[in-house]
Each structure stands twice: as structure tokens, then as C-alpha cells.
Automatic annotation (TrEMBL):
It comes from Micromonospora orduensis. Keywords: Glycosidase, Hydrolase. Transmembrane segments: none annotated. GO terms for molecular function: Glc3Man9GlcNAc2 oligosaccharide glucosidase activity. Residues 37-430 form the Mannosylglycerate hydrolase MGH1-like glycoside hydrolase domain. This is Mannosylglycerate hydrolase MGH1-like glycoside hydrolase domain-containing protein. Belongs to the glycosyl hydrolase 63 family.
């Protein structure tokens, strides 16, 4: 990886991260970016709370509390909470497209109707571990019912196939918006060219269009949003007509990890951890049964429209490593995949982790989730490697992630070979997870 300068000492990196989070703080939450993402995003806030616990514990709890204040009556945690102080058009697609005000059970504040991977219970647990004490315990006790409601929503409303796994209804819900994993089901989504002519994209005004999803991608994204919005975000009848229905390995790994985290939270606050442990085991069993592909030795999304696994070898397939009860043979297979030429380096895995198979013809090292390296995914995979007995690989991955920021700053994502910073600069979760990586040194 090319060296491009930047603060090389750990103290300088810590100051950079703290300054980035302070600059992105917005009265009760952190914006991912002052330019590209000026509102509150769901899984961004979860990752950001983990980092804030290192430096401003009270802000970590305010971050999560403000997000869950926008929880819908059915338990869903929306993927965007809009700041009413910003002008109309400050972000696209904005509140006027989502129309949450017309949806049953939506909060008073404008939100999207989609969700994102449920990493929030894990974030709450880690925030408490980083800053234990009475205030943190009280915050856990307050958040616990909302975290349980989030899981209940997913279990009751999004288990479309009845197989114990959660279905995402839009690529944005997976967090990996334009991953090659979605190419096949997205190709089946009709998209009129007129759709994009009616709107003006916000992202390409702040980032190179060559690094972002294409206009065709966006037309299809909007078509899926319209289909979900027009049915009132009810989740009823999804199997009959919704254009995008996929069981995602990352989303379901986060869903299972949330139950493990909730079991620990329940024990801390004096509640019964047993039901959470039972549900966690069932989710892991369903994930292995439904999404593991023995032919490739990795996990792959299942398209419920065709009931087939989707074949692209993306970083989604590595994320079930975050499940502590993933069977050893499946964890070992994922280590083989992670250290293959597709994703890593066989000995130390100290090369930036790409979001897609480096050897695939559709690998694009500059375009969003089609190749670049992201700190949040590397952070999750690193935790999984450490949990499954590979601290050596976890240490190599940690070194590569710190090196990315040392070279390029707190960018949204990075070129997986040169380390060049891509997307938005001064990005919230990059700064937050850098703080967590710095605190969790090699000795630990």
C-alpha cells in the first residue's frame, strides 16, 4: 500500500479521530459527514457510539437514545432520521420522497421506512464495557426494551420465508448498497429512465460519480422505495409482490450477534438472559442451514424470489464470523476464504480488506461497495477472527485499518490496494472505530 502521508503517531491519530467526531456532533447525535450525509443514520450511530464511549461516554448514550427516539411503533429503527432544521433538498432522497408522515406507527419526526443491520445491541454493550459505571448501567436499562422491540420487529415482520432468518427489502438495508451481491436480483427490478429525470441526486455533487452507484442503480433503488412506501411500509404481502427480497448474511449475522449482546445486557441489568441465548442459537442454526454454501466455503445471500443463493464472492460472506457460536468447521472455512487471494494475504492478512473479490471481473476498487475497503466491515471481521482463535490475523487486519487512516485520514472508504481515501472526508464511523482499534491494542 502506498504511503500518502498523514499523522503517523498514535497520539496524532487519536486527536484526528476526536476532532472529526467533535466536528460532526449535532446537538444529540453525530452526522456521518457534514457534506454527503447531514442527517442521522442508524448503523452509523451504532458504530459511532462505540468510539464515543472512549472519549465522551455521555455522548455515546445520547447518540443511541436519540436514534431510538425515532423508533416506530412496530419496533423498526429507521435507517435515516431527518434533521428538521435542514432545508428541503439538503439530502436526496429526503423526507418528501419517503412520506413517513403518512405511515401508520411512524414517529413524529420524519424518517425513512427502511432499516439497517441491527448492530445496536452490540454497540450498547461495547459502549458500556468501554465506560462502565452507574450512568452506563442506567442507560443500558433504559435502552433494553427498545433493543428487544427492534429484534421483535425483525422476527415477526421480516421472516418472510418462515425459516428463522430476516429478509431485507432493499439493498440499502444491507448497508452494502451497490454490492455485486445484489446485481442479479436488482436486474429484475424494472426502472423507468423518467424516474431519475424527476429527481436530482445529492451524492454526486459531493463525491466523484465514478465512485458512486450508477444512475441505473438509483432508478432501481427509487422503484423499490416507491413499492414499499406505497404499501404503507406494512410488511404485509411482501412475498406476493415486493420486487426485492433477500436474506443477507451480514444482516442476519448482526441479528444473531444482537441476541448474544442482549443476553449479556440482560444479565447486567438483572433480567433473564435465557430467551436471548435460545434465539441466538436458533439464528445461527438457520444461517448455517440456509446461507452457507459448501461448494465455495462461504456464506452467500439467498434471493427469496428464486430461492437460490447468489454467487458473487463478497465480504458479506465473511461477516458470520462475528457469531461466537458459529460452528468451528464453518469458521475455519471462512478463515480460508478471508486469507485467499480474493480478500487477504495468507500469512498475516495485513492488506486492506476489500468489499468484493479482488480476482472477480466485476471488482471495481474505486466504486463504493464494489471493491473499496471500509473500516466498519474490517472492524466486524476482525472481531470475528479474534473470537474464533485467530488473533494473528485479527492483529494484521487491525494494523492495515490503522494504516489506512494514517495515510489518508478519516475517509468514508479507501482504495484497497493504494490506500487512497475515497468518498466523504471527515467520516464519523471511520473516526469512531479508529478510536476503538487504538484502544484495543495488540497486547489485548
Amino acid at each position: 500500500m502506498a504511503r500518502t502521508g498523514g499523522p503517523a503517531d498514535l497520539g496524532g491519530l487519536r486527536r484526528l479521530a476526536v476532532d472529526t467526531l467533535d466536528a460532526n456532533w449535532e446537538h444529540d447525535h453525530t452526522v456521518p459527514s457534514r457534506t454527503l450525509y447531514p442527517h442521522q443514520w442508524s448503523w452509523d450511530s451504532a458504530f459511532i457510539a462505540i468510539g464515543l464511549a472512549q472519549i465522551r461516554p455521555e455522548r455515546a448514550w445520547r447518540e443511541l437514545t436519540s436514534l431510538f427516539r425515532a423508533q416506530w411503533a412496530d419496533g423498526r429503527v429507521p435507517h435515516i432520521v431527518f434533521n428538521p432544521a435542514l432545508r428541503v433538498g439538503a439530502y436526496f432522497p429526503g423526507p418528501e420522497l419517503w412520506g413517513s408522515a403518512n405511515a401508520e406507527g411512524a414517529p413524529a419526526v420524519h424518517t425513512s421506512g427502511l432499516v439497517q443491520p441491527p448492530v445496536h445491541a452490540l454497540a450498547a454493550l461495547l459502549a458500556y464495557r468501554r465506560a462502565p459505571g452507574r450512568a452506563g448501567l442506567a442507560a443500558l436499562r433504559r435502552l433494553h426494551p427498545a433493543l428487544v422491540a427492534q429484534q421483535r420487529y425483525l422476527a415477526k415482520r421480516r421472516d418472510v420465508a418462515g425459516d428463522g432468518l430476516v429478509c431485507v427489502v432493499h439493498p440499502w438495508e444491507s448497508g452494502l448498497d451497490n454490492s455485486p451481491a445484489w446485481d442479479e436480483p436488482m436486474a429484475a427490478v424494472p426502472a423507468e429512465a423518467a424516474v431519475m429525470r424527476a429527481y436530482r441526486r445529492h451524492d454526486t455533487a459531493h463525491a466523484d460519480a465514478a465512485h458512486r452507484p450508477t444512475d441505473l442503480d438509483y432508478a432501481r433503488y427509487l422503484a423499490i422505495v416507491a413499492a414499499y412506501r406505497d404499501c404503507g411500509y406494512t410488511d404485509r404481502g411482501l412475498a406476493e409482490g415486493h420486487p426485492f427480497l433477500v436474506e443477507c448474511p451480514l444482516f442476519n449475522a448482526a441479528y444473531g450477534a444482537a441476541e448474544h449482546a442482549l443476553a449479556e445486557i440482560a444479565a447486567l441489568i438483572g433480567a433473564d438472559p435465557g430467551p436471548h441465548r435460545v434465539r441466538a442459537a436458533r439464528i445461527t442454526d438457520a444461517l448455517v442451514r440456509r446461507l452457507y454454501d459448501p461448494d465455495t466455503g462461504t456464506f452467500q445471500p439467498r434471493d427469496l424470489r428464486t430461492d437460490r443463493l447468489l454467487g458473487a464472492r463478497t465480504v458479506l460472506g465473511l461477516t458470520p464470523l462475528i457469531l461466537p457460536d458459529l460452528p468451528a468447521r464453518h469458521a475455519d472455512a471462512l478463515v480460508v476464504e478471508a486469507t485467499s487471494a480474493r480478500f487477504g494475504v495468507a500469512r498475516r492478512m495485513d492488506r486492506p480488506l476489500p468489499s468484493h473479490d479482488r480476482t472477480a471481473p466485476e471488482f471495481e476498487p474505486l466504486r463504493y461497495w464494489r471493491g473499496p475497503s471500509w473500516l466498519n466491515i474490517g472492524w466486524l471481521v476482525r472481531r470475528g477472527l479474534a473470537a474464533h482463535g485467530r488473533p494473528d490475523l485479527a492483529a494484521g487486519l487491525r494494523e492495515s485499518m490503522i494504516g489506512l487512516v494514517a495515510d489518508a485520514g478519516c475517509h468514508e472508504y479507501f482504495h484497497p490496494d493504494t490506500g487512497a481515501g475515497l468518498g466523504s472526508p471527515a467520516f464519523g464511523w471511520t473516526a469512531a472505530l479508529l478510536l476503538d482499534l487504538l484502544a484495543d491494542g495488540p497486547a489485548r
